[in-house]
Amino acid sequence: MELRQLEYFVAVAEEQNFTRAAARVHVAQPGVSAQIRRLEREFGQELLDRGGRSVRLTAAGEAVLPYARAALAAVAGARLAVDELAGLLRGQLAIGTVTSHNVDLPGLLAEFHDAHPAVEITLAEATTDELVDGLRTGRFDAAIVSIGSVVPEGLDIQVITEQAIVVAVGHDHELAAHATISLDTLRGRPLISLPEGTGIRARLDEACAVNGFAPRIAFEAGDPEVLAQLAARGLGVAILPEAFAEARADRLRPISITRPGLRGRLAFAWRAKGPVSPAARVLIERARKMLAASR
């Protein structure tokens, strides 16, 4: 049994796809498939169900996965201990981010790269749910996420901004005459929202559920700018961060939501426990100082 076989197996299990897993580990797909087949022969059991559109774990695969992760984590921890003793700063950093924010992430990463050119940095956009899961499993070292008042389990955060979530409509919309509306006013109305898994959508779904209804999502897009454009054209009521909506007041009418009000937080997040590479530790420290100075 080889560590790379366990690494490839974990990648396929998490990605549920051989092509994405191969890209993640920077190996051609046939090589990943061949190594996992060897691992399965060694166990005498198939670990992956390849019959559907996505790859799923078999019962044996479910049993092996936590041990494979633990083995990889142990090796990573040993390497970190040696690197720290030697004072080295190298390896890889995986950073995640939600789509829209005002953090100078390119500036942060560029400064880090200039100071530590031996560290390979990757950046990926995803929903908050995907980012939180990636932080917990070690796929991401740090991420910018959108959350509510509760800190996701297993993570530490530094709040970047906290602001109200508002509705935004075109200036000729029937709601445009109102400065505030109750959440119940949205019942049955066509809404324009970010997709499930995003922080703002989670706050909307939670609040509507407490008030006894499910939001009617007519249009869904991952880019807040698209939501603003759809609302400005009169296609529905957009759910947006307050500052984002107010910055487009020439074409949108931001309206506060009351009873209850909705609030969200943008935060820089990292894993609370487990091995942290020297590179990740330095980046997290840099990011926290930058964010503290900008507030």
From TrEMBL:
Signal peptide: none
UniProt keyword annotation of Transcription present: yes
InterPro entries with a match to the protein in the record: HTH-type_LysR_regulators (IPR050950), LysR_HTH_N (IPR000847), LysR_subst-bd (IPR005119), WH-like_DNA-bd_sf (IPR036388), WH_DNA-bd_sf (IPR036390)
Gene3D superfamilies attached to this UniProt entry: 3.40.190.290, Winged helix-like DNA-binding domain superfamily/Winged helix DNA-binding domain
Domain HTH lysR-type stretches: 1-58
Keywords, sorted A to Z: DNA-binding, Transcription, Transcription regulation
Family affiliation: Belongs to the LysR transcriptional regulatory family.
Full protein name: LysR family transcriptional regulator
Species of the source: Amycolatopsis pigmentata
